[in-house]
Amino acid sequence: MATATFRIWRGTAEKGEFRDYTAEVGEGMVVLDAVHQIQATQAPDLACRWNCKAGKCGSCSAEVNGKPRLMCMTRVSDLPLDVPVIVEPMQAFPPVKDLVTDVSWNYEVKKRIAPFSPRKPDAPDGTWRMAQEDADRVQEFRKCIECFLCQDVCHVLRDHHKHAAFIGPRFLVHVAQLEMHPLDTGDRVAALKNDNGIGYCNITKCCTKVCPEHITITDNAIIPLKERVVDDHYDPVLKLIRLVLRRRG
Amino acid sequence: MDHQTHEHDVIVIGAGGAGLRAAIEASAAGVSVGLVCKSLLGKAHTVMAEGGIAAALANVDDRDNWKVHFADTMRGGQYVNNWRMAQLHAQEAPARVNELEAWGAVFDRTPDGRILQRNFGGHKYPRLAHVGDRTGLELIRTLQDHGIHKGIAVYMERTVVRLLLDAGRVTGALAYDRERGRFTVFKAKAVILACGGVGKAYKITSNSWECTGDGHTLAYDAGAELIDMEFVQFHPTGMIWPPSVRGILVTEGVRGEGGVLRNKDGHRFMFGDIPDSYKPQTAADEEEGFRYVLGDKEARRPPELLTRDHVARCIVREAREGRGSPHGGVFLELQTFAEWFGRRVKGFKAELHWKKKLPSMHHQFKELGGLDITKEPMEVGPTTHYMMGGVRVDSDTQMSRVPGLFACGECAAGINGANRLGGNSLSDLLVLGKLAGEHAARYAKDRPAAGVPADQAEAAARRALEPFDRPAGENPFQVMFDLQDMMQDLVGIVRKEDEMVRALDGLEKLKARAAACHVAGNREYNPGWHTALDLHNLLTVSEGITRAALVRKESRGAQFRDDYPAKNTKEFGRVNTVVWRGPDGSMHIRLEPIPPMPDELKDAIRAEAGGTLPEELR
Ligand SMILES: Cc1cc2nc3c(=O)[nH]c(=O)nc-3n(C[C@H](O)[C@H](O)[C@H](O)COP(=O)(O)OP(=O)(O)OC[C@H]3O[C@@H](n4cnc5c(N)ncnc54)[C@H](O)[C@@H]3O)c2cc1C
Ligand code: SF4
Ligand code: SF4
Ligand code: FES
User: Fold this and answer.
1) Total tally of structural domains belonging to chain A
2) Which residues, listed in sequence order, are joined to residue B235 by a DSSP beta bridge?
3) What was the ipTM of the complex prediction?
4) Which ligand is nearest to the CA of A90?
5) Listed residues A101, A125, A153: the one ending a domain
């Protein structure tokens, strides 16, 4: 059977190094398979996160040959194998061990965003009516598997470490999902500007490119949110109208 | 022992749909709640559920109601279900689904703007609320985003290895954290197990690494009983090629949307094997089946939507008798339906249609199998999918026989009987998860705090560290692989007495190997160590499955015995198998009669069974 070299980051928060492992490569194999093979046969203490192995849970995020990817959805046959395949942890988060990083910041950020608050039910039985086309718009955002690859690639977090001031693309998608939710009555526009730091995003679109769920993060989520922020700022009347419309639902 | 301590009124172990729903409910009752899980929040196995949530909302077909859902669930379970749970489940599922919408879930819609429902195997009417084929993600994310604002303390990436008891009552749990390998003692007045399934006991499975039977084993070790352990559901359609994706699920939604099964000769074999009890509900020909898919109320369902156990066995038969696909399964294709539909609807675009209806299946095959399902047939075969058996709990409170110990979700048992219908798990998580949360909170409120005996935690921690202490020994991964191979071969879809007796023997040997394995490295995020600790759970549930399967000398639902291929209702149609840990530490088993069903429920079943009661209920 053919083999390939996997150059995997091994280490802790304090120190680490790349180490080379040889793995057998079979048909259809993905990078996560190689990591598992190495774990089972050569390095049982090699740390990585995974759950579904089908691109549905967003656990196995890492950087493969320098690109933020889900390891379970990266086919080995799509990579050049004459050189080592480099596998390292996401760079925008503190390292824990090997391929595992500390992503707890993301969970804290989400808690700060005002939760969903629906309008009064439309029907006496306590249910709502919603057209599919209105659902479509937020369903795109709700596909997010919280892999945090977009957070990893965003230069505001990765290079400028603005974690305290900027919530990152994942949570702008989350806010967009709430703001455009057909039933929601909350208003998160002031928070977007002040607490969430939407102004830091300069629309480089790197986040959209890495999203494994193909969410059009910049065009569909961030830009419309930026427009709302601008409208609110420069046009208080528009803001008032929108608030009234929303209350009426 | 160096450890942290956290104290709550209620500790929920597991943050899948069941655990999250239970935690939300307990917290709403005003008690302090801790939620513990092995992965990050939102990653539990529930996230993978695809097809939908079963609830008789009657949005698509107004003939649906809880009684029909109840009757469908009982027939699917071949009447060995806990009928009270099945009743509560059918009655309350619609309210639980609507509640998800109130918490922000966005389901697919009907033309008049209500929650859309789709067809699924064993359900008489279109009943599954869904979001494309990523319903589990919608469910878990909705509960997660709702739950994080409710003051629940979440402890991620911690694995519970032992429940702690004080005078027979559960008062806590011992866990280690993955990151550092340190121990935590959780003190609580009540503990809810919501640890999910056991799929990792088998080689080919749709389940994630988390599904190692922890909830089953924690309960068993604490003195609770497990029931229905012989009933392991093999889903008929898992991916089988390429090898690295073997087992990954192909949702039943594919068949619900018109997917057709064929053998290598192109023959649609399901039409040739329709059980008598389902004949009145099954389409007579292709045309009628497709009309059903489109929602024609006069039409009956295509045979691909018969129950999972039956479809799985038909696929195994085709493959064994030499009519399978190149890699040992059969073909599942969307082209026949698309052509038929295309002839009726002008401008029908097959590719767009499937991408909308089955987006994640399209994605999954494209990315992992290099195959475009809108154009080519898929190769599919059975995969270990769901555990019907689990912790025996009271139907109205979800408490086990151990005071203070509750269980819900896949690790609890009763509602599904011998076979679960698709979509009934997600609704079960919500309905019975809520019930568990409510009653655990009530139980906790009534009780003073009890102590956790320090020596128990000490002893459990010491045992957990043994794999490091041994100077040498086997690799725990190898022991796990050998167990998975053995269970797949000897206690799989088709079972026989002599093979299972061999399996029991094999389990003893594997237990000895597990007790002698060695782990290198240190305690920090060490998968080898985690696997070494999982082995105890995998071995316990494997033994439970094997012993129960041996005792049930008949074929019913998910259990198929080659040596007893027929149902034997006289002996086994009115009993459940029960296993528990005896004082000597060995596994005991007995058959226990199912309490008689009230007339109101019998009437519901009779109405759906053409006026006569099935033999099990007579
Ligand atoms: C691919 C796939 C598709 C499916 N599709 C559907 C569908 O369409 N409809 C349907 O109804 N059902 C479906 N099912 C079944 C359904 O998803 C599961 O039965 C259900 O999600 C189980 O939920 P749960 O809450 O019981 O457990 P899980 O979601 O498995 O969660 C278990 C939790 O327990 C934690 N845990 C386990 N052990 C420990 C421990 N020792 N210490 C601490 N925490 C622990 C885990 O970390 C996790 O958080 C599907 C299953 C699969 C595999
Ligand atoms: S578009 Fe904005 S959010 Fe996305 S990567 Fe660029 S700066 Fe970051
Ligand atoms: S938006 Fe896309 S890249 Fe970002 S976390 Fe969600 S799924 Fe991942
Ligand atoms: S393991 Fe779930 S996304 Fe890769």
Assistant:
1) 2
2) B383
3) 0.94
4) 3
5) A101
